Amino acid sequence: MLSAGYHKWFTRAAVSICYPHLVMPTLRTRDLVLSSALVSTLLLSLAAVAQTPAAPAWIPEVLQQMNQIQQAALEDNYVYQQTAHLSDNIGPRLSGSAQAAGAVQYVADELRKLGLAVTLERVTVPHWVRGEEHAELVSYPGQVPGTQQKIVVTGLASLNNSTPPEGITAEVVVVNSFDELAALPRAKVAGKIVIFNERFHHRMADAGFALAAYGEAVAYREGGREAASRQGAAAALVRSAGGAEFRLPHTGETGYDPKLPSIPAGAITAEDAELLARLSAQGPVRLHLVLTSKMLPDVESYNVIADLKGSEHPEQVVIVSGHLDSWDLGTGAIDDAAGVAVAMEVAQILKQLHLQPRRTIRIVAWMAEEVGVFGGKAYGKEHTADVANHFAAIETDLGAGHPVGINVCCDESMLKQLQPVSDVLQSSGAGILRESEETGADIIPLTVAGVPNFSPIQDVRKYFDYHHTAADTLDKIDPQELRENAAVVAVLAYALASMNAELPRHPKPVPDWLK
Q1: Can you tell me the distance from the alpha carbon of 464 to that of 485, in angstroms, rounded to the nearest whole number?
Q2: Of residues 110, 226, 345, 369, which has the active-site annotation?
């Protein structure tokens, strides 16, 4: 296709030939013949240029190297060993904790061993600590005198989110939605403990839309506290935002509005939410709740940045990343030791094969994603001046389930550009290319700046059974599927860092939370 400039030139040339009196009234016949010949020659030259095929994004040698990378990653156990160390040996890595600090040093040391240039970029992070947490039914229909029933509860992270040390005791009111709560007279809610019984959509998750199902459920964890406070509630408890119903509560952060009264908030299991709904339908139910979490002073932590320098354009960067922090109930294996280890494996494989891409591949282990994307935001601010040199960004943060392809954000034309990469990955069942904005929270600041970003499309049908629970442990990871993820990300990273073409960039309006 000719450029806009060529179209303008072609239009003027055509007018001068067909209607010479409109362009050059004094043009003589001989000049017109010469001009026509000149135009014809130029048009033929342009046609030849237009028919010349564009240079391929990857030469055959690089495509062969992608196949080598894929095979090496599928056979290498480094990614599993690193996941195991982060989850088993270091353990839960809550933002601001000693384990989070230890993980920073461990990952930095491991990447230095691979010969990468390692930098620790400072991030100021919240330091929330879990306290005592328990709940009991102290009064309910049909209660045997002198007995209580335990309710399994876990605290949610936020400011001013605790009960007094002795706890609170209040009647519960069970609702199924925000609209149902808003429709209740304030007097029916004031002083009570609101139970949000929003059910996780299992069939949606089983159909491959687990992230959408989670989005519907997690809205109550994020906004339930504020909604209950507006109605004068004494506390808010949300049904856990997850798929497994093995009496496992799912933790996470919850909203905070300084203009509203601060009330305690926690998550209860699906089974206990159903129990409270059934009992409340029979008559008044009173609950004793103790949640004594604390928000300590902020802590200085770090994003781990490690560069494998490019051979031709070392100033241009392809980020490969996962987040290093985790919640504290489990050991953070699927969320997100696996993602960090996949990023580390990319460097390990390229070093093993003695491959150096044209652009720099930058391994990033983000800090404090779980409590508000603090690492991602800090990186975005730190690198504002050089964001134009960020060629692409990749994040793995949905566990370690079998990958079927690549999420591509945010231009459909890239799907065609990346078809040769898809062809390489097809042999391991990961050849799907899909336009999607589901590419990772930590790289959102780069997305907003227009940097193309990517993530593996993973099987997440069971991910939210364990996510943010005590069951997020190493045994939930299939080593072979983890290697498959490493293969996808390593091939993609090398392809992006080696391609002989540019990617489209589409900056977006900066959301309020990034300002």
Answers
A1: 18
A2: 369
